[in-house]
């Protein structure tokens, strides 16, 4: 059986009373609506009842239908809204699913056991980590299994309204195997994150929906009127690694001088102004800090650190770049989105297929920022490769000529390394070393 999901797009159809409404809505619920009698809500079935926030996903069996109601925060009235276009997946169609939630889990080891039991007999590969602070999951599988796990998890009130990101897997599994276990830190930082107040929403950055983020982004970069004079009281902070920025980023965001999130130190310099730190010498009381990352979790974590440092006006892109691309397309974004799985890089059209050919053409022009690591010429493909030297394994962008000249390596020195792997064509990823070692032995 096929599964579907939809996005709440906040298109008001009519009000349930005569009081005017705005397009601002708050957390509410949606239910199956049977009839409307004299503009009064009457429910004959409560079969579908879930909590949701603007832009969140929900799933249902293919072929079923319902109306949606949202609670308006502007006047306290219920209004009917319409769902975005449904995305349908066949049972055996592979997808990649990402989500996280900060919530107290009293016995995470027991929680891990429950999740492992549910996974029995299901074809799911990926990384799913749990601890006392919540869950962080990225996995792939046929939609029947991948979405069944989401639905099972949402039956638990602690995870009932998680924002789930879904993208095409392209070619089978995006992860080699399933790692589902307890992990002390849901994301890695030098000092760990167990001491951070992640369970207190007031200590994290204020989340902005994709549409709210787009509005702020356009104000910062003056995209609408093509001015090139960003506001000085607002900083667009890319909370990712430098190599992620290299294949795609929001216009106006400085390239992070970071090779691993673990070592991120924006805003932590006390004695000197560091040119590579966008938050150095910033007015912590008056400056808006707009933070973004791939899916949102790194921003939530790092914003608590900045909050403790005294930064007051912190905002984060809810659901990260992937959620933004799905809702707003590539507006304000240049290039592709780096992802931490076998796909490595996804174009905006992977999240929003209806992006026009014209927009795709604009994206191609904007790729001029992406340079070959070796010769610094413009690359034709926004996708990293690993150095063929196993003992180097550097992740880098490379033009086709240098791939050929350096045999898939990042420098001439690596071409003479003892553990040299073959040049991989297309979008293939390297396997374990013994695969190539055994092939070499067989060829002798």
Task: Describe this entry's structure for a reader.
The protein has 444 residues and is an alpha+beta fold. It has four domains: 3-88, no CATH class; 90-182, Alpha-Beta Plaits, CATH 3.30.70.100; 201-365, 3-Layer(aba) Sandwich (Oxidized Rhodanese, domain 1), CATH 3.40.250.10; 385-443, no CATH class. It contains nine helices and 24 strands. The strands form eight sheets. Strands 1, 6, 7, 8 and 9 form a five-stranded antiparallel beta sheet that branches. A five-stranded mixed beta sheet has the order 13-10-12-11-14. A hairpin with a 2-residue loop joins strand 3 (35-37) and strand 4 (40-42). The chain is globular and about 55 Å long. It starts with a strand and ends with a helix. Mean pLDDT is 78; it is low at 1-67, 79-86, 223-227 and 356-365.
Which of globular, elongated, flat, extended, rod-shaped describes the shape?
Answer: globular
- CATH fold category name of the largest domain: Oxidized Rhodanese, domain 1
Q: Give the domain tally.
A: 4
Helix content: 10-25%
Distance between the termini: 50 Å
Q: What is the CATH H-level superfamily of the largest domain?
A: Rhodanese-like domain
The assigned structural class equals: alpha+beta
User: How many β-strand runs?
Assistant: 24
Q: Which CATH class of the largest domain?
A: Alpha Beta
- The helix count comes to 9
Uncertain segments: 1-67, 79-86, 223-227, 356-365
Which value, in Å, is the CA radius of gyration? 23 Å
DSSP strand (E) fraction? 15-25%
If you average the pLDDT, what whole number results?
78
User: Major beta sheet, specifics?
Assistant: 5 strands, antiparallel
CATH architecture of the largest domain: 3-Layer(aba) Sandwich
